[in-house]
Design goal:
mainly alpha, 67% helix
Length: 677
């Protein structure tokens, strides 16, 4: 690591955190981060490596330096969007606003039921703190100053929540470094996103990437870029251009598959073709691409069969909105448990020795010191997290499984992305709702559930931009460039601190300047009210049933009142069994066509959007391998890398144009989205 690579990496993190909210909710362009392969970051590296770095001559950055810059920038990308700030900021202030129009909240005294430091302080000037946030303090073209933001009200809750977020991130950084050697060097996971990153960086002693001289790479890049450039121009001049279709309507086929349609699968008959997914699918095992392609079709077929008997797997058994008890979510939770069990079993020798060495006991095989130290950091940070959850008021018997489920979600997300290149994915289960479904409201307690839901809205409600998957790909890129992981891990912590120092003031400034004109009703209205709506509903439901509940009674005594939801328990078992059964069949039968990761994703929105593209990628790879052999397969790799680069630039360039257009005209540019997020 060089000094300039560290400085540039920190500047990259600061830039992403400073521009993210403005780009997403003022310009409303393709999300600056939005998924696990942000076009803004990867596209910028494509432009720099191919168009700028060669002209720096003796000052050109090496591939190792650029890998470090990318790693620190990706670490910062975990801050501004769904990773934290997008939901943190509104969750601390909007409950005060919603309480005014929620009589049930006032009757139950729901806002006063949580520690005051978890929300902004409105005792001095509620109108400025709350209404100023909602309506904006700017007048006409006159913008506010930084001093107009009520910093005093925001100080206590930010000082309360940010240490918790940083502790979680430090734990995930330590864990990602600790498991990376097993995933990369022992199991040889494909890491398709990292392979793309490595391909666009210059080789040792060179200023240009090796791809620069590959004709097929440029053909793939330019064809895809021309498609998206034309379609973006079409949004400005629809009367003069013809849009090249990337979405197709096959709904006339719906009548042929009534069971499939009954299950809600009509959306799959309007596929959007993501060329980036076709390119990434070329670099992963064929059974993964096939499973991801047919997975959503199988899910809606199952849904349709159940719907025939009047059973809706997406209908909540209890609760409202997010954190409700949906059978679908518990099936995905069970699948996550199954994947984690399979991962631990596959690498059991490494993990056992890692734990033994971390606890000061010698194992049967040598573990590198960096992995041992990183795992110790993970253990220490996890212990601190448990203490912090206890300080919030969450009882230890609930805090332990809650935190375990959260960390499991991040680990499985990282594993899926490292193994499949699925650029857009969320967990679709929530630890608070999981404990509610498996133990019941009386055993958990409405107050405990509300506190866990509050933590979830900030740390885990939208992990499509999660830190650990970013780190997994960054660390593999560093490994390919022979950069030790220890120092980048430390500087990733600094990048997160820099990102917080930039993202929070910028977000607060835009909100207090423009108010609700920035849109984003999901994070501004839906997310902040979920914990409180559910708490009111649970309290009233228990009261209606005549089930008195004394929450001062310790959890171990309340456990006798446990009433697991039978459907939630059954779906958890089914999800777990499907993964374990598929993993076992895959090991025993060479002909087995499905991959167990399908069951973590088949019921998710991302795969509903991208499943057809994975199916096309599988078909392309299968045809090439069958009729062209390994030589043809390898010769076409630059073409596929070009397709990926073209799609990324097709998303980035309109964003850059939109920023320039807004700077010149002060008008919002046309919306144009390429990559899901």
């Amino acid at each position: 690591m060089t000094r300039r690579s560290i400085i540039l990496g920190l500047l990259g993190a600061a830039t992403v955190c400073g521009l993210c909210f403005f780009n997403d909710w003022v310009l409303r362009q393709t999300y600056l981060v939005g998924n696990n392969m942000p076009a803004a970051i990867y596209g910028s590296f494509v432009l720099f490596c191919f168009a700028l770095n060669p002209f720096l001559k003796k000052h050109a950055l090496t591939g190792r330096e650029l890998a470090v810059v990318m790693a620190l920038t990706l670490a910062g990308a975990g801050v501004p969007g769904g990773g934290l700030v997008r939901t943190l900021v509104p969750s601390l202030v909007i409950p005060h606003h919603l309480e005014k129009t929620s009589p049930g909240w006032k009757q139950e005294g729901i806002i006063n039921a949580i520690p005051k430091r978890m929300l902004v302080d409105v005792s001095d000037d509620e109108d400025r703190v709350v209404n100023g946030y909602v309506q904006g303090l700017g007048e006409g073209n006159a913008h506010i100053g930084l001093g107009d933001i009520p910093w005093k009200a925001w100080g206590p809750p930010l000082l309360f929540w940010l240490p918790i977020a940083m502790t979680l991130w430090i734990a995930l950084i330590g864990l990602s470094v600790a498991v990376h050697r097993q995933w990369s060097e022992h199991e040889h996971l494909p890491y398709p996103i990292a392979r793309f990153s490595d391909a666009i960086l210059p080789q040792k002693g060179q200023r240009l990437p090796a791809l620069f001289n590959q004709r097929l790479f440029w053909i793939g890049l330019l064809v895809v870029l021309c498609v998206h450039t034309n379609n973006y121009a079409y949004t400005w001049f629809p009367n003069h251009l013809i849009q090249i279709p990337t979405r197709f309507d096959l709904t006339p086929l719906a009548s042929v598959f009534p069971v499939f349609v009954r299950g809600g699968g009509t959306g799959l008959l309007r596929p959007h073709i993501y060329i980036i997914i076709i390119g990434l699918a070329y670099f992963i095992p064929s059974d993964v691409a096939l499973s991801f392609g047919i997975g959503p079709f199988l899910w809606y077929l199952v849904m349709g069969i159940f719907a025939t008997y009047g059973i809706n797997l997406t209908s909540p058994q209890d609760g409202t909105s997010y954190f409700s008890l949906k059978p679908q979510s518990f099936a995905l939770f069970g699948a996550n448990v199954g994947v984690l069990a399979a991962v631990l079993f596959t690498g059991r020798h490494y993990y056992i020795n890692l734990v033994r060495n971390a606890l000061g006991r010698k194992g049967s095989e040598e573990i590198d010191p960096t992995s041992i130290a990183s795992f110790r950091v993970f253990l220490a940070a996890t212990l601190c997290l448990l203490i912090q959850l206890r300080v919030i008021g969450i009882e230890l018997p609930l805090a332990i499984p809650y935190l375990a489920f959260m960390i499991m979600g991040f680990v499985v997300l990282s594993r899926v992305i490292a193994e499949t290149g699925l650029i857009y994915l969320k967990c679709y289960f929530w630890p608070c709702a999981t404990l509610w479904g498996l133990l019941g409201a009386r055993a958990c307690g409405p107050q405990q559930l509300m506190l866990m839901m509050m933590v979830s809205t900030i740390l885990f409600i939208d992990p499509r931009e999660a830190l650990m998957p970013f780190l997994a790909n960054a660390q593999e890129t560093l490994r390919l460039r022979k950069v030790p992981l220890g120092r980048p891990a430390f500087w990733s912590v600094i990048a997160l601190l820099v990102g917080l120092a930039v993202a929070i003031p910028v977000t607060l400034y835009i909100k207090y300047d423009m108010g609700s004109a920035t849109g984003d009703n999901w994070s501004t209205i839906t997310v902040p009210k979920v914990p409180f709506d559910n708490a009111v509903m649970i309290r009233r439901k228990l009261a209606t049933q005549g089930l008195a509940l004394d929450e001062t009674v310790p959890f171990w005594r309340r456990l006798g009142e446990a009433s697991p939801n039978p459907i939630c328990v059954a779906m958890t078992v089914i999800g777990f069994a499907l993964v374990i059964g598929c993993a076992t069949a895959r090991l025993r039968f060479k002909w087995w066509p499905l991959h167990p990761l399908m069951f973590v994703t088949w019921a998710s929105t991302p795969l509903r959007w991208m499943g057809v593209s994975y199916l096309l990628g599988w078909a392309v790879k299968s045809i090439v391998a069958k009729y062209g052999g390994s030589n043809t397969y390898n010769r076409l790799k630059p073409l596929m890398l070009g397709l990926i680069a073209g799609e990324i630039l097709g998303a980035l360039l309109p964003t850059l144009f939109g920023l320039l257009y807004y700077a010149i005209t002060n008008e919002q540019p046309r919306m144009f989205n390429v990559i899901p997020g």
